[in-house]
Amino acid sequence: xxxxxxxxxxxxxxxxxxxxxxxxxxxxxxxxxxxxxxxxxxxxxxxxxxxxxxxxxxxxxxxxxxxxxxxxxxxxxxxxxxxxxxxxxxxxxxxxxxxxxxxxxxxxxxxxxxxxxxxxxxxxxxxxxxxxxxxxxxxxxxxxxxxxxxxxxxxxxxxxxxxxxxxxxxxxxxxxxxxxxxxxxxxxxxxxxxxxxxxxxxxxxxxxxxxxxxxxxxxxxxxxxxxxxxxxxxxxxxxxxxxxxxxxxxxxxxxxxxxxxxxxxxxxxxxxxxxxxxxxxxxxxxxxxxxxxxxxxxxxxxxxxxxxxxxxxxxxxxxxxxxxxxxxxxxxxxxxxxxxxxxxxxxxxxxxxxxxxxxxxxxxxxxxxxxxxxxxxxxxxxxxxxxxxxxxxxxxxxxxxxxxxxxxxxxxxxxxxxxxxxxxxxxxxxxxxxxxxxxxxxxxxxxxxxxxxxxxxxxxxxxxxxxxxxxxxxxxxxxxxxxxxxxxxxxxxxxxxxxxxxxxxxxxxxxxxxxxxxxxxxxxxxxxxxxxxxxxxxxxxxxxxxxxxxxxxxxxxxxxxxxxxxxxxxxxxxxxxxxxxxxxxxxxxxxxxxxxxxxxxxxxxxxxxxxxxxxxxxxxxxxxxxxxxxxxxxxxxxxxxxxxxxxxxxxxxxxxxxxxxxxxxxxxxxxxxxxxxxxxxxxxxxxxxxxxxxxxxxxxxxxxxxxxxxxxxxxxxxxxxxxxxxxxxxxxxxxxxxxxxxxxxxxxxxxxxxxxxxxxxxxxxxxxxxxxxxxxxxxxxxxxxxxxxxxxxxxxxxxxxxxxxxxxxxxxxxxxxxxxxxxxxxxxxxxxxxxxxxxxxxxxxxxxxxxxxxxxxxxxxxxxxxxxxxxxxxxxxxxxxxxxxxxxxxxxxxxxxxxxxxxxxxxxxxxxxxxxxxxxxxxxxxxxxxx
Length: 931
Description:
- The protein is α/β, with parallel strands linked by helices.
- Among the domains are: 42-142, Response regulator (Rossmann fold, 3-Layer(aba) Sandwich), CATH 3.40.50; 146-280 and 308-319, Response regulator (Rossmann fold, 3-Layer(aba) Sandwich); 481-641, Histidine kinase-like ATPase, C-terminal domain (Heat Shock Protein 90, 2-Layer Sandwich), CATH 3.30.565.10; 679-791, Rossmann fold, CATH 3.40.50; 811-926, Homeodomain-like (Arc Repressor Mutant, subunit A), CATH 1.10.10.60.
- The protein contains 28 helices and 24 strands.
- The strands form five sheets. Strands 2-1-3-4-5-11 form a six-stranded parallel beta sheet, with helices on both faces. It has a six-stranded mixed beta sheet with strand order 7-6-8-9-10-12, with helices on both faces. The protein has a five-stranded mixed beta sheet with strand order 14-16-17-19-18.
- Strand 23, helix 20 (762-770) and strand 24 form a beta-alpha-beta unit.
- It is elongated, with a radius of gyration of 51 Å.
- This is Sensor histidine kinase.
- Keywords: Kinase, Transferase.
């Protein structure tokens, strides 16, 4: 029973609310229909040549007076200030603003005609006001007849002077169409009176100052003048003032043109006796708007609307003044009535808006009441449902907690087994590594195949041991049992030592390793055992994913604002895909890159170790362009993390996977596991001989080979080897031609060349030596002799390198460009000295200036001086700084900036590192203070 009553009550309430809402909607719709639709908006553009004078202001005032009867019109004026170019541009702007009609008062007829024709041809009506264009392509013309104005003035003046007298004419701007027409009508009509004479003319440019400047001289030249006719009232006022200054105001009469009302208009001037008369020239503003509205509304109109003219003199000036004042008063009354009407409209609109708002509020309240009632019903049902769901969630949460605890126990057991198993692996690995290393270092009678197999076993055993160590580190990080024992050391030298491990592998693949520390010495508290694993993993990953002939850049810089040091490892590899970026720091995660996959522990281990060191590890990557990993470390560590143990070099266990174990001291001859860093290029077309030479040299040097002279010459320029072994008889370029081109190219001119040939005639050997070869060996040759000869040549090259370096350390100007190598060093030194003040001078800039690649420059300088290009540049800077320091007028900071150092502190550190004395101490010892 209660349920049925409630249901009926709800239905009645909904019905009442629905009826109320419907009634309100009908009321609003009826109210909206009762409002009259506003008239369509009309856009009229007015291009005015200028509005700086009273006549133009009167024109604009007349337009506005007429526009007050047309509230639907949007009127916009652009003033060109007597600039025809600007007026054309403004009319073009009107076209872009979608105007419905254009009114133009041209500054000059000829320049404005084309743009007016364009507007007319687009179908936009054009009303020409006052000044005509040279074309008939316009909709209507409104303006006075300037020829008639001139004629009227001439007839009146002849009457005033009783057809006998001398007249001076002051014309408007030169070339202006009103000035031309008024003069034409005036001159032709005046010529009909024999007693009248036009004795002088001048241009007043429509302005009073121009008249007052030029008229006195003209009046003095023509004292017979009886009357002055000016083309507008402003110039007429100027003529009167000149006559008054000269005492001629009672004898010479002045007649103007315009006849404007107001205290500064021509009518007032006539009434005050300043002007004898003024010729009415109506501005035509009202007529222009009336004509425009007829055109827009499609009503009949006249194309030519000529405004009448008349003479205003003392006989009718008072009447004209009273009429204009009456019209002005009536216009002001009309404006007040329009303002009152607008206020009433605004009041009506605001009241209507308030009514709509009240109706909307009432409607909203009714709707909100209905919604609230329905929401209350829905909420009751939702509360009951939520109570049931809360009970289910509580039960599920208890089950999840039990499962989580069980999973934690099982995970802990798995990790414990995992750790114990890793520990067990270390014992058999140690038993494998020991005998293998002993056999490799102590056994001299192993064959090449046996040594190769044992080396393979040793390398992979080391890799397996490294993986086990990473697993142990992972477990220590997980349980928090890896302590940090930091000591203070030079992070720059530390990272440099780690990079040296990868130098050989990078060179074999043609990968350029760049090291860019911002400072040579950067003290930092760090744990060697922790950071060596971090940087080893980052460099190992960079080397793995960088393609051959790529580039890896390691940079170190201090960040003073954060009190940190930032070490970044940047490669030019394949980058990290979008799907891998969120997971690369997860344990055992292997990405989807096509490169060789690892264990998935390296980056996760590096992240854990960096965080353990209170640092941050981040990365940026672009697929196909490479990745950059950044390690940010604090300069200071808490005392609890510091150790009293001084900084030491890398641990003995730190080695790259493919590095060989060291030879024992008792081993008499070098083995393939201890190859020199020197690069030898073998150019030999016979495959067997080439393989034989490569096999003999490979245990002692890095060896590359080429089968013809062209390929060998290209490889020599690209890789800059330390020595070349070249056959004389080669396909394409012969060996002698190869040597000649090597010596002619300063990139390769320093490389020693050993010639191999089957021709043993003395003159043939002499030819080889003359071509530039350092050694000439005939086939068959003794391999041991070849090996020792190469070593001797390399040793001699090292002595020569030391000679060049000593010369550069004393005075760069002593390197005489006699040989090609000396010339190269002279050019290199000149480039560095020319850019000595540049703090951003890089190896790439120097290489670009020399026209070679960065790698070629590095190997060339390394071969000649045994040092890097960066060290060479810094050596030049320090040598120059030592000379400049002798100048007592320069401070140490000025010397630092003149020699290209980024800061005085960095300069002092580098100077002291090279000369074991600070710049200030050096200056104190060598510069005598001034008394």
